[in-house]
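Sanity check. The docking grid for iron/sulfur cluster depends on where the pocket ends up, so I'm generating a full predicted complex first rather than guessing from homology. Inputs follow.
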Amino acid sequence: MTVAWSFTRLDCFESCPAKYWYQYVTKRYPFVENEHTTRGNAAHSTIEARLKTKASLRTSALAVNEKTRTSIEWLEQLLLVYESLPASATHVELEVALTDQYTQCHWMAKNCRHRAKIDFLILSLDGTHALVVDWKTGRHYPAKVIDQASDYAMCVLALFPGVRHIDAQFVYLDDRSVHDYKFTFKDNPVIRETFELRAADLQASYDNNHWPVKPSDNGCRFCSANVPGGCPSGVR
Ligand code: SF4
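Predicted complex below; grid placement will be based on this.
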């Protein structure tokens, strides 16, 4: 089979191929939500509702959570700034599905090779500048976030070929910080090539049915297979 990769799946595979195998191939130990992912998902739904329906943040899940309730006013102001930007189009929770030729396709299409979801996208009036916004809870991991930002840049350039500049902003709700990564259309060939090479490694594991274990404290800590009777290499 030819695999469709996403940033999350590639990250899982690279952290431990066996973990990917357990989660996505055999599905014997599928991903199980933990308190961190539950909180992150609640934050995404809350902000999505605020952007789509103007639902108040002040009565949302963010307002009752001790880590984010002090960020409500800050976030509301930030959203107002985003909403005041002159834009030719905005998209909330935009699903991106691409073929190997970087053309758009249906999410479940057989020839889909890459999937991504963009939390919030603002296109400038002249269509040459895209602002991508990603909501985050928890801590900032620069290496991972730059990687994710380059994926967003690649997706934006596939969907909107007239874009010349991309700002990817990661909004951290807990500590009220914004991390901004900038790209231009000239970065696209290198980004594509890099992800293609990484996706080829994932494809090779499918082709050869080769899923070696790669234990690590952090990787195993949040691995569903790290249970009695599960992965024998788990770090407990
Ligand atoms: S428990 Fe650790 S080594 Fe085993 S599959 Fe999970 S991440 Fe990999």
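Relevant for the grid: The longest strand covers residues 89-98.
Also worth noting: Residues 149 and 168 are 6 Å apart (CA to CA).
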